[in-house]
């Protein structure tokens, strides 16, 4: 939930740390801080609020000279976003500083123990126990102190630790929280995510759980949890710097919405060879699978809800969609004949990881669909299909969602062919429809210049309803989430047929209802629901195919999408809803890329 970064080398560390923190700010943005080792002491600067405040307070880092340091941007879990609770945390003797991403689950007992031993706590955080443990265990050897400290910690943690007595040295520790090392020349780095590293190096080492690293300007040594040196593979970072910048757009979210045709193409094209779909190294024995369970959180879960229709329809295998936070505690009926599909943009969502581990322990075969290369979910699954969307920085996902759908559509078609549940002609026809998606997404982006006007009309709404049936309902779920998380307007999604079982009582004069009507087989039914809500005064904004004249005559306002095969329509249909949410949020003056109370990567339960 937080971002951490570290630098040791020849330059002043603070400007490098600030640059890294800017890139990591999407991970948490309620407070920030840096600690730099200088002249045998550690200087710390912290602010509440954004990185910009830290830039100002340290005069672009100039007030914190020194060539080794660690930085942090926080999404508060333990304790309010105050300066004392901001990281880095320092030891009572001021000789050590620690930054942390994750949660120390046994911090209460450690805090009691350390308090009894005379250590004084300045914050309410779980993290502070770490720095006092390091001080307690330090007997002139930081590596030993770090190992003894790690052995006492339960939970998830990526740590960066510096010591005034060992200048030029940083220890970086990983347990169930992402941590990547960047290799430079005469300088080395660590960060929670490669976006903070790409400006400096393309050579990276992905730490595994239980490993820790010693960084000096001259090199990086990785150790296993027993302190034995280990050789690690150096990976090449393929994301470029521009991908992590706004590129002329006002917001990352808008840039990422616009990137969707390209991202979907990048995800799909390498996997279609002639008339074959080639899914990397996936060699699932599909004939042994009698049930598919899709699990994820938030938008990723909604991508699963939308793709369920395509997989069931094409493969004739029952597909259950389960929220990861529920699945993990549900004593799930899963066995060796279950294929668990795990969706996650970040690959680090705590509930999703836990659900996957629970199902794996019951014998499920696991297929991950992940964007961040080398992430925990990617590594834990039996097979991984990456969504080649590039870095997604805006907290609200857009291209993450559409590329997840793309992979699932590819999978549905691939599996149907393997299982022989569709004939060759149907397969070829569907493959042609699938290949058209990037072009159709581009059309969906281009064909609604009126959305800015619609946003001006709807931005004052107190609440909105998103209704639809079947695949349209799945899109309604994601459309409503986009609207509420960035515009702060209450939005609810309803299976249109459910309205009259209670919710229609809430429809009143002027109530906005967004009606999704892009599923030909059932549009007539949704149109009846439009008539019903209109009869009670609702203001209806319908989303439909360009040629649907009947809806034009019913609805107050229209958004059009190009004609697309119903099985794959969700990927196209969501695009104008993303744009609508974006412009409504803009009208309302919201912080679109960093909505309040949220963080990009939810690495806590
Ligand atoms: C909403 C959003 C979240 C994520 C969810 C899962 O716009 O981004 O709902 O979809 O937190 O995150 P990942 O996909 O990283 O597991």
Offer a few descriptive terms:
27 strands, Rossmann fold, alpha/beta, Glutamine Phosphoribosylpyrophosphate, subunit 1, domain 1, globular, eight-stranded antiparallel β-sheet, seven-stranded antiparallel β-sheet, binds fructose -6-phosphate, 605 residues, 3 domains, single chain, 19 helices
Structure, explained:
With 605 residues, the protein is an alpha/beta fold. The chain has three domains: 235 residues, 4-Layer Sandwich (Glutamine Phosphoribosylpyrophosphate, subunit 1, domain 1); 187 residues, Rossmann fold, CATH 3.40.50.10490; 149 residues, Glucose-6-phosphate isomerase like protein, domain 1 (Rossmann fold, 3-Layer(aba) Sandwich), CATH 3.40.50. It has 19 helices and 27 strands. The strands form five sheets. Strands 3-2-4-1-10-9-11-15 form an eight-stranded antiparallel beta sheet, with helices on one face. It has a seven-stranded antiparallel beta sheet with strand order 5-6-7-8-12-13-14. The longest helix has 21 residues. The protein is globular, with a radius of gyration of 25 Å. The protein starts with a strand and ends in an 18-residue tail after the last helix. The mean pLDDT is 95. Fructose -6-phosphate binds next to helix 8 and helix 16. The site of fructose -6-phosphate has 16 residues, from helix 8 and helix 16.
């Amino acid at each position: 939930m937080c971002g951490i970064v570290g630098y040791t080398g020849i330059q002043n560390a603070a400007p490098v740390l600030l640059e890294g923190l800017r890139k990591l700010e999407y991970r948490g943005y309620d407070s920030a801080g840096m600690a730099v080792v200088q002249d045998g002491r550690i200087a710390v600067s912290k602010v509440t609020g954004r990185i910009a405040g830290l830039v100002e307070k340290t005069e672009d880092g100039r007030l914190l000279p020194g060539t080794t340091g660690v930085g942090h941007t926080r999404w508060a879990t333990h304790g309010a976003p105050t300066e004392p609770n901001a990281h880095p945390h320092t030891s009572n003797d001021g000789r050590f500083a620690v930054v942390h991403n994750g949660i120390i689950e046994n911090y209460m007992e450690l805090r009691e123990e350390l308090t009894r031993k005379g250590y004084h706590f300045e914050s309410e955080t779980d993290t502070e126990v770490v720095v006092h443990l390091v001080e307690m265990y330090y007997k002139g050897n930081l590596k030993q102190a770090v190992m003894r400290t790690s052995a006492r910690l339960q939970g998830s943690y990526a740590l960066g630790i510096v010591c005034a007595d060992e200048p030029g040295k940083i220890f970086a520790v990983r347990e169930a929280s992402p941590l990547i090392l960047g290799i430079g020349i005469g300088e080395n780095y660590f960060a929670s995510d490669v976006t903070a590293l790409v400006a400096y190096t393309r050579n990276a080492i992905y730490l595994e759980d239980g490993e820790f690293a010693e960084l000096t300007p001259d090199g990086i040594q990785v150790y296993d949890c027993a302190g034995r040196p280990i050789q690690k593979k150096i990976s090449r970072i393929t994301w470029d710097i521009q991908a992590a910048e706004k590129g002329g757009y006002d917001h990352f979210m808008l840039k990422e919405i616009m990137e969707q045709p390209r991202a979907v193409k990048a995800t799909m094209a390498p996997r279609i060879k002639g008339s074959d779909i080639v899914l990397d190294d996936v060699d699932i024995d599909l004939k042994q699978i009698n049930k598919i369970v899709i699990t994820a959180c938030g938008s990723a879960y909604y991508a699963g809800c939308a793709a369920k229709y395509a997989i069931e329809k094409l493969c004739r295998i029952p597909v259950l969609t389960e929220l990861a936070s529920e699945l993990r505690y549900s004593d799930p009926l899963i066995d060796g004949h279950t294929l668990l599909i795990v969706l996650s943009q970040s690959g680090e969502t705590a509930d999703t990881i836990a659900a996957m581990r629970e199902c794996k322990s019951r014998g499920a075969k696991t297929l991950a669909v992940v964007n961040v290369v080398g992430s925990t979910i990617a590594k834990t699954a039996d097979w991984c299909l990456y969504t080649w969307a590039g870095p997604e920085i805006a907290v609200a996902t857009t291209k993450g969602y559409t590329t997840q759908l793309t992979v699932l559509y590819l999978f549905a078609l691939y599996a149907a062919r393997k299982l022989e549940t569709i004939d060759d002609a149907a397969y070829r026809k569907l493959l042609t429809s699938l290949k058209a998606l990037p072009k159709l997404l581009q059309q969906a982006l281009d064909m609604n210049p009126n959305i800015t006007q619609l946003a001006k009309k709807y931005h004052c709404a107190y609440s909105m309803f998103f209704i639809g049936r079947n695949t349209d309902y799945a899109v309604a779920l994601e459309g409503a989430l986009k609207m509420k998380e960035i515009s702060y307007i209450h939005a609810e999604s309803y299976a249109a047929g459910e309205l009259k079982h209670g919710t229609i009582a809430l429809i009143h004069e002027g109530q906005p209802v967004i009606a999704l009507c892009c599923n030909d087989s059932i549009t007539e039914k949704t149109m009846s629901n439009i008539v019903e809500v209109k009869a009670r005064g609702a203001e209806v904004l319908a989303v439909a195919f360009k040629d649907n004249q009947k809806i034009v005559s019913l609805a107050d306002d229209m958004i059009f999408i190009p004609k697309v095969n119903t099985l794959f329509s969700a990927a196209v249909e969501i695009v104008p809803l993303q744009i609508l949410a974006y412009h409504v949020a803009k009208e309302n003056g919201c912080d679109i890329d960093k909505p309040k109370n949220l963080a990009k990567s939810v690495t806590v339960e």
